[in-house]
Amino acid sequence: MDSYSLKSVFDLPESFRSIFNFRYFNSLQSECFPVCFLSDVNMVISAPTGSGETVLFELCILRLLSRFISGDGRFVHIKGTLKTIYIAPSKALVQEKLRDWTQKFGSLGISCLELTGDNDSYSTRNIQEADIILTTPEKFDAVTRYRIKDGGLSFFSDISLLLIDEVHLLNDLRGATLEAIVSRIKMLARNPEMKSSALASVRFLAVSATIPNTEDLAEWLEVPVQGIKRFGEEMRPVKLTTKVFGYASAKNDFLFEKRLQNYIFDILMQYSRGKSALVFCSTRSGAQEAAQRLSQIVMTFGYSNPFIKSREQQERLREASLSCSDKQMQSYILYGVGYHNGGLSLKDRNLIECLFLNGDVQVLCTTNTLAHGINLPAHTVVIKSTQHFNKEKGLYMEYDRSMILQMCGRAGRPPFEDTGMVIIMTRRETVHLYENLLNGCEMVESQLLSCLTEHLTAEIVQLTISDITKAIEWMKCSYLYVRMKKNPGNYAVKKGIRREQVEKHMQEICVQNVNELSCHQMIQTDQDGFALKPQEPGRLMTKYYLKFNTMKHIMQAPSSCSLEEVLQIICHAEEIASQTQ
């Protein structure tokens, strides 16, 4: 697309032009402009990370706000009446957008509110008055679960725009929560009582990394043909080369990650071409140890250290080392290596960031916190292990796909580089998974079935579902329903069966779950088993995010059980059992 075809900020109303600090939208943004800003249709956009997708969210927000422009061109805003909900996989991404949008939209009198685990200082009034609510799937779900009596669902009628960032999160276990809340919004939007509300015509915009089944997301979100936009690697502002290396497993995951440190230097020598490199490690200590190992290796090179190019650079590093308060970092800096994590003082973090940006520190070992927020891109990104230690579950788990893609997105970011390199270090048996992910070949599946009982209970407690018919309707609003029709074998359905048979199977799953909930007193059904009402155990299970099996064990405990028996129940709960074994 040449410059004559690019859309300009002057194609926007005068009140909105100051939102953007550039004159022309890029090719991707220009192609999407007519649908984003000149229509109200739902959209699904599949594009490489870092191709300017945030602007598409902003154009849709401005489209909504254009309803407040009067006949004479003045922007007259009524606070909180038309809400935008922005949902992202991580707190870091939410907070990054919060800072950006508070500054951009603040000049229009638009208020932004963060709903994450880091911010519990909000009230129902804050939510009611907010124009843009930025949140994670879990927090949004929790707020509407445990604040029902305080009006947790009361603001739903004002939701006009739902922005879903990194919708490929659906493929991860956490994706079930995202799927459940979107299905809830779809259900409520169809409610006849909402007919005159903003929610009745809610608009969806979902942005995904490159995936093969964009049309499934489009079917789920009821996106017309003109709202489906697919972009390939040609839209990436820098050319990105990717490699996935597999290594033999160790006795345990901890030792496996530790052993990978021995390969980092050779990888950097072969692929970073003497340019800046970020090495992502799963823990603070892992980042520190990786920096230590690299320093030990280049120390043996003497004056031929490949990370130091000149005497001037060496002198700057000596001066920086003297101003660093972290004793270990002092020695690493001298060799052009550093580490970055939350354990450093603010002064030392700022120092190492400046040294990395100006090229004096060539290799920075860091935790995944640098995947979001702080703009520290590099030519090369090395992901040292695709697993991280999950403190809540007490074991090593694969990173969410969205986190892997965010880390990859730090490679070759403009305007710093025009090319980029990504190396993923993983176990041999998972190489193909990450090759498919990076090549955009991984199908996005639903994870809702694995925790359907818990989410079904939550909808009954919130009165989104009041009978069996509504329960089946809610399931038909899910992404699970879309994928069950396309890939029945993945959801315990025989291949080759007709669509109506899939629907029957889904209804059977729904009825089976309802019967089990009723049997264990989580909900109450009427005599014909049609109407569904929440019971106190179900309310408690929903409020405290308990697993169904955990709640069953609690219900089965005798009323006079001892402290030891109580502790046994708690320790055997799925939520924490892995940490006590």
TrEMBL record:
<keyword id="KW-0347">Helicase</keyword>
<dbReference type="Pfam" id="PF00270">
    <property type="entry name" value="DEAD"/>
</dbReference>
<comment type="similarity">
    <text>Belongs to the helicase family. SKI2 subfamily.</text>
</comment>
<keyword id="KW-0067">ATP-binding</keyword>
<keyword id="KW-0413">Isomerase</keyword>
<dbReference type="InterPro" id="IPR027417">
    <property type="entry name" value="P-loop_NTPase"/>
</dbReference>
<dbReference type="InterPro" id="IPR052247">
    <property type="entry name" value="Meiotic_Crossover_Helicase"/>
</dbReference>
<dbReference type="GO" id="GO:0016787">
    <property type="term" value="F:hydrolase activity"/>
</dbReference>
<dbReference type="Pfam" id="PF02889">
    <property type="entry name" value="Sec63"/>
</dbReference>
<dbReference type="InterPro" id="IPR004179">
    <property type="entry name" value="Sec63-dom"/>
</dbReference>
<feature type="domain" description="Helicase ATP-binding">
    <location>
        <begin position="34"/>
        <end position="229"/>
    </location>
</feature>
<dbReference type="InterPro" id="IPR001650">
    <property type="entry name" value="Helicase_C-like"/>
</dbReference>
<keyword id="KW-0469">Meiosis</keyword>
<dbReference type="InterPro" id="IPR036388">
    <property type="entry name" value="WH-like_DNA-bd_sf"/>
</dbReference>
<dbReference type="InterPro" id="IPR014001">
    <property type="entry name" value="Helicase_ATP-bd"/>
</dbReference>
<dbReference type="GO" id="GO:0007131">
    <property type="term" value="P:reciprocal meiotic recombination"/>
</dbReference>
<dbReference type="GO" id="GO:0043138">
    <property type="term" value="F:3'-5' DNA helicase activity"/>
</dbReference>
<dbReference type="InterPro" id="IPR057842">
    <property type="entry name" value="WH_MER3"/>
</dbReference>
<dbReference type="GO" id="GO:0005524">
    <property type="term" value="F:ATP binding"/>
</dbReference>
<keyword id="KW-0547">Nucleotide-binding</keyword>
<dbReference type="Pfam" id="PF00271">
    <property type="entry name" value="Helicase_C"/>
</dbReference>
<protein>
    <recommendedName>
        <fullName>DNA 3'-5' helicase</fullName>
        <ecNumber>5.6.2.4</ecNumber>
    </recommendedName>
</protein>
<keyword id="KW-0378">Hydrolase</keyword>
<dbReference type="Pfam" id="PF23445">
    <property type="entry name" value="WHD_SNRNP200"/>
</dbReference>
<dbReference type="InterPro" id="IPR011545">
    <property type="entry name" value="DEAD/DEAH_box_helicase_dom"/>
</dbReference>
<dbReference type="GO" id="GO:0003676">
    <property type="term" value="F:nucleic acid binding"/>
</dbReference>
<feature type="domain" description="Helicase C-terminal">
    <location>
        <begin position="263"/>
        <end position="460"/>
    </location>
</feature>
